[in-house]
Amino acid sequence: MTAPENQPRRPAIFTVDDDPAVSRAVARDLRRHYGERYRVVRAESGADAIDTLKELKLRGDTVAVFVADYRMPQMSGIEFLEKAMDFFPLARRVLLTAYADTHAAIDAINVVDLDHYLLKPWDPPEEKLYPVLDGLLEEWRAVGDRAMPYTKVIGHRYSDRSWEVRQFLARNEYSFRSVDAESQKGQQLLEAAGLDGSKLPVVITEKGETLVEPRDAELASLLGLSTAPQLEMYDLAVIGGGPAGLAAAVYGASEGLKTVLIERATTGGQAGRSSKIENYLGFENGVSGASLTTTARRQAERFGAEVITTQEAGRLKVGGVGAAHSIQLSDHSTIGARAVILATGVEYRELQVSGCRATPDDPSEANFVGRGVFYGASVSDNSECAGEDVYIVGGANSAGQAAMYMSQTAKSVTMLIRGPSLEAGMSQYLVDRIRRTPNIVVRTCTEVVGTVAEGDHLSGLVVRDKQTGETEQVGCDRMCCFIGATPRTDWLEEAGIARDDHGFILSGPDLREKVGWTLDRPPHHLETSVPGVFVAGDVRSESAKRVAAAVGEGSMAVMLVHRYLAEA
Ligand SMILES: Cc1cc2nc3c(=O)[nH]c(=O)nc-3n(C[C@H](O)[C@H](O)[C@H](O)COP(=O)(O)OP(=O)(O)OC[C@H]3O[C@@H](n4cnc5c(N)ncnc54)[C@H](O)[C@@H]3O)c2cc1C
């Protein structure tokens, strides 16, 4: 075992393998690539490794990644990783396995929340080892414990804007730490920046730049994102930067169309809020929504698409067959496009309970949105809910993912579902995982009927058993609602875009049956009632509401745009 003494305090990459030759080979490959930034520490047995971990912990050192061999006598790699999590819970976890042990590795994804498994041998490491570890180290740096300069977001725990700022940064995979303005550290930072804390949140970047109450557009420019289109006319304008819009931008730009994507907030859409998407093809260990969609944004930009964030499309003026359509943006500028793809997705429905409406009809009604009540997953980093009693309302996969993610640090997670069982709305893999998680409780046939306040934030809920009608008050630090979603398509009415009774956009064959299509040719699949305007993803009537379906439709819509442009 290499002794950690006398080495600079860099974060460690920790490897354990009982075969000395393999152990040395792993350490050699790791040092070659990561030696300058990380300390490679190796051990040749689980027990030895645990002793070293204790030593590292005592010295205040950090571990970024564990790489453990699966087949070790006395203590298997999975057992080791389980123990190692007690010392360094934020470190990423990789299991080394032989091909025959792949099933054990897949099981370990559930047991120790494995981040990756690597098949031995991993030659060449440039292809099989480093890309995996690069990704994990990047993730670790985003949340991990490290002695490096980092961006701080100083705000109140119960402030909706502080929460929005953190979400904006996290969804773009921008690494930061959240600091409570009331804490000693928060006070010190504000004082050092010459601020009295009356205006929050404050973002202090790694370079010391200070943004007070930053607007989304300022955050976007901090991140180097574009907020204004460069041209007046495009071949293709994609509205919405979720998976469908991002796929359309990648395919549009890569196939030579001058493409612009307009996104109201930040790219990622609903998928960007998912802590871990596990059923998207090609990611056997799952992928965080932020990681998937940030990569997709970069990919679209690499092909030459302009990706514009913090601009909402508010008006579509139809140009007639073959002529350009024009789109008005929230800064009142207008762009033209020969074809348009609408990929505006859906938004969570609000719980119609006092305290849970962002803009209540009665202004005297309390509003805890962003102050204990959240729509969708509420944490950009699960340490935000450490020690809390969290309630998750809803029983679909998105609710299940959030429950699993928050259960890692929350004191308790209670899922409230109106139906009689989880199975009705959730994939079995998640149901099984939830059942195995001791601090998640599932309450069926239960609904929220009231909120309880402490000051200006949520402190409890009133829940009702739908079978007995009995109500009960429970303590709750954070409630995250996942109760179905609706499209925001009212702005398309003026353009004559036909929609179904729920506001979802009709397209292709549905138009002929329900709306009446006037052109000689039939509408293309995914073409809306306005020729040259296409729809993709969750906003389409009868769509599948899945990442893969949205991506598929976004790419297919581009093929149909080509067909339309060729005819026009
Ligand atoms: C927490 C969570 C977890 C999920 N997990 C999974 C999973 O594990 N597997 C799976 O397959 N699916 C999952 N889903 C569903 C999946 O994320 C969606 O089906 C997918 O994101 C739909 O993509 P989309 O591009 O059609 O729409 P969205 O993702 O909804 O994106 C639409 C985008 O359009 C923008 N927009 C809206 N109106 C305008 C406008 N007027 N101007 C500009 N921009 C606008 C919005 O801001 C948004 O960014 C999950 C959803 C959630 C919420």
From TrEMBL:
GO terms for molecular function: thioredoxin-disulfide reductase (NADPH) activity. The modification 4-aspartylphosphate is found at residue 69. InterPro entries: CheY-like_superfamily, FAD/NAD-bd_sf, FAD/NAD-binding_dom, Ferredoxin-NADP_redctase_2, Sig_transdc_resp-reg_receiver. This is Response regulator receiver modulated FAD-dependent pyridine nucleotide-disulphide oxidoreductase. GO terms for biological process: phosphorelay signal transduction system. PROSITE patterns: RESPONSE_REGULATORY. The keyword Isomerase does not apply. It comes from Mycolicibacterium rutilum (Mycobacterium rutilum). It holds the Pfam family Response_reg. Keywords: Flavoprotein, Oxidoreductase, Phosphoprotein. The keyword DNA-binding does not apply. Residues 12-135 form the Response regulatory domain. It catalyses: [thioredoxin]-dithiol + NADP(+) = [thioredoxin]-disulfide + NADPH + H(+).
